[in-house]
Amino acid sequence: MGSKERTALILIVDDEEKIRRALHSILTSRKYKITLAKDGEEAIDMAIDNTPDLIILDLSLPGLSGVEVCHELRSWYTGPILILTVHSTDQDKVKALDSGADDYLTKPFSAAELLARIRALLRRASQNIAPMAVITFKDMEIDIGRRTVKIADKEVELTRTEFDILAYLAQNTDRVLTSKMILEKVWGPNYIEDTRTLRVHMSNLRKKIEPDPDVPRYIMTEPGVGYRFTPTPSDNYKS
C-alpha cells in the first residue's frame, strides 16, 4: 500500500454504531485515519472542519438523507464518495450516483471488496489532479487531444461518438457512470432517456477494443445502473 493510502483520512457516515465500529476496525487495521459521523448534519460539519480524502456515506440517515448529504457536499467537495447502504435497487443506486457519488457497495459487504473499492477511488483521485492529455492503461493508450486510441501500439478506428464514450469512461476510471450521465455528457440533456442508443454504441465500442466482447476486460456493465471502466481484468476475464 502506498503512502497516499496509508495516510488517507476517511470520513465514515452511518447512523448504526455497530457499522461505524466495524468500519473503524477494518480501516484502522490498514493504517487509514478515520473520523466518524452519525448523521448528515454532523458529517457536513466534520467535512468542512477537516476535509477527508474519501467519504463513506450511508443513504438511510436521520434528518438529511444520504442523497441530500451527497448533493450538499458536491457543492464544494471534490474527493471520492462511496455509498454504503442496504438499499440495493437500481433506482436507489442511480439516484445516489446522479447526486454525485462515485461508487456504491451494498450491505452486507466483504472487507476485501470494501478495501478494493477504497484503493481504486483513492488511486483515481490522486491521478485526477489535472486533466490528462494522454491516458494509458497497460496496453491501451487514449490520446484525448489527438482523439486516437491504440491497443498494443496498433491504432483502433473509432467513430466520434465511440471515442467520446470511451474517453469519458477512461477519465473516470473505476467510477460507476450511470447511463444518464453518459448520455448527457456525450449526446446532451435532450437524450438522457435514450438508453437503447447507448447500448448500441457500447456494443460497437466493445467489439473494437475488447479481446472478447462477450466477456469484457475494460468496460464493465453495472446492471440497471450504467458502466464502469477498469484497466484491471475482471474475475471473469480469461486471457
Please give the structural blueprint.
Blueprint: H1 3-7, E1 9-13, H2 17-28, E2 33-37, H3 40-49, E3 54-57, H4 66-73, E4 81-85, H5 90-98, E5 103-106, H6 111-127, E6 134-137, E7 140-143, E8 148-151, E9 154-156, H7 160-170, E10 176-178, H8 179-186, H9 195-209, E11 219-222, E12 226-229
Parallel strand pairs: 1-2, 1-3, 3-4, 4-5
Antiparallel strand pairs: 6-7, 7-8, 8-9, 10-12, 11-12
Helix pairs in contact: 3-4, 7-9
Give the full name of the CATH homologous superfamily of the largest domain.
Response regulator
What percent of residues are in strands? 15-25%
Number of domains: 2
CATH architecture of the largest domain: 3-Layer(aba) Sandwich
DSSP strand count: 12
Strand order of the largest sheet: 2-1-3-4-5
The CATH class of the largest domain: Alpha Beta
Task: Calculate the mean pLDDT score and round it.
Answer: 88
In sequence order, what are the helices and strands, one letter per element? HEHEHEHEHEHEEEEHEHHEE
Query: How many helical elements?
Result: 9
CA-based gyration radius: 18 Å
Shape verdict: globular
